[in-house]
């Protein structure tokens, strides 16, 4: 169900939940519920959760038993989060492991409206396959395209984690009228990386997303998980998720930054009218050479 946005608010309060998880899903859900409620009590109208927030990040190994974590949409988790959204009167951005059909699974964001209805869904389009991030084993690439989700707070350009490295994804969301770019995320360090390499990785992650904000004149909300999660196979030392969740404005200016070593709920004001002014000052959309970009859809230009 889509909510038509007639009168978008000029400012909104956004809550981000950066938390660690355990193997106990019930405990994770209980903690998430408390953290969402905490954000709402602080005035948040929109709350964003991290990627695959119900469980540990199970993609460190290829194990068919992990498909048992997947749920249909709608299903038990959507029922749980719908009630939270309705009871608290918030728009809520979640990230779920979707069981679409036997043998067909997606990494899916579900957005709930303030009345608890599902405003829309987004299926992760870019799927990584790297050591400790074996997502291609679990997730079928999304087939819903790069389409913003209409809510009472505006058009949400929801993307997921690996999508955040691709300027094309952010641009297409912006060209379709997104008011915000939102990235639920699960990313961290392997312990054998040097301190210098860890800094380079984190800096690149932040810079890439701030670049999307600048290039598109849009606020960006990026929410990462925190804590160390073991590799069940023992082949690596696991992942130290680096947190550093943040919110930036349409010039890439920081509005909020979380730490890399603790759980945090942060509520921040976003000026929704600032995009209009920034795009007047920096008219990138006006000056785009759309007549010269036809080769952008090629894999490589030989």
Give short descriptive properties of this protein.
globular, alpha/beta, Nitrilase/N-carbamoyl-D-aminoacid amidohydrolase, six-stranded mixed sheet, 15 strands, single chain, 302 residues, 24% helix
**Spatial order of the strands in the main sheet?**
5-4-3-2-1-15
Report the biggest beta sheet as strand number plus sense, adding barrel if it closes. Answer: 6 strands, mixed
CATH architecture: 4-Layer Sandwich
**Helical coverage, percent range:** 10-25%
| DSSP strand content | 25-35%
Uncertain residue segments: none
CATH topology annotation? Nitrilase/N-carbamoyl-D-aminoacid amidohydrolase
DSSP helix count? 6
Fourth-level CATH superfamily: Carbon-nitrogen hydrolase
Number of domains: 1
- Radius of gyration (CA) equals 18 Å
Which structural class should the secondary elements be placed in?
alpha/beta
CATH class: Alpha Beta
Q: Can you describe what's shown?
A:
The chain has 302 residues and is α/β, with parallel strands linked by helices. The chain has one domain: 4-Layer Sandwich (Nitrilase/N-carbamoyl-D-aminoacid amidohydrolase). The protein contains six helices and 15 strands. A six-stranded mixed beta sheet has the order 5-4-3-2-1-15. Strands 6-7-8-10-13-14 form a six-stranded mixed beta sheet, covered by helices on one side. Strands 9-12-11 form a three-stranded antiparallel beta sheet. Helix 1 (25-41) links the parallel strand 1 and strand 2. It is globular. The N and C termini lie far apart (44 Å). The mean pLDDT is 96.
């Amino acid at each position: 169900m889509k909510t038509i946005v007639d009168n978008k608010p000029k400012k909104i309060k956004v809550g981000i939940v950066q938390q660690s998880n355990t193997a106990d899903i019930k405990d994770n859900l209980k903690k998430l519920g408390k953290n969402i409620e905490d954000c709402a009590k602080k005035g948040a109208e929109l709350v964003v959760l991290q990627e695959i927030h119900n469980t540990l990040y199970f993609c460190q190994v290829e194990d068919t038993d992990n498909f048992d974590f997947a749920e249909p949409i709608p299903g038990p988790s959507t029922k749980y989060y719908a009630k939270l959204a309705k009871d608290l009167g918030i728009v809520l951005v979640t990230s779920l492991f979707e069981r679409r059909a036997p043998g067909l699974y997606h990494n899916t964001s579900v957005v709930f409206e303030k009345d608890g209805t599902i405003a829309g869904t987004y299926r992760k389009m870019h799927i990584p396959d790297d050591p400790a991030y074996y997502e291609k084993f679990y997730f079928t690439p999304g087939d819903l395209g790069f389409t913003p989700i209409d809510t009472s707070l505006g058009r949400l350009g929801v993307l997921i984690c690996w999508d955040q490295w691709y300027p094309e994804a952010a641009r297409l969301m912006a060209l379709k009228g997104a008011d915000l770019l939102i990235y639920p995320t699960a990313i961290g360090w392997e312990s054998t990386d040097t301190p210098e390499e860890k800094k380079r990785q984190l800096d690149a992650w932040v810079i890439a997303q701030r670049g999307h904000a600048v290039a598109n004149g849009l606020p960006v909300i990026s929410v990462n998980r925190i804590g160390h999660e073991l590799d069940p196979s023992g082949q690596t030392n696991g992942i130290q998720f680096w947190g550093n969740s943040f919110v930036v404005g349409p010039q890439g200016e920081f509005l909020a930054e979380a730490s890399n070593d603790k759980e945090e709920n942060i509520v921040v004001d976003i000026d929704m009218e600032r995009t209009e002014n920034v795009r007047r000052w920096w008219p990138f959309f006006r000056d785009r050479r759309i007549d010269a970009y036809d080769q952008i859809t090629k894999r490589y230009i030989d």
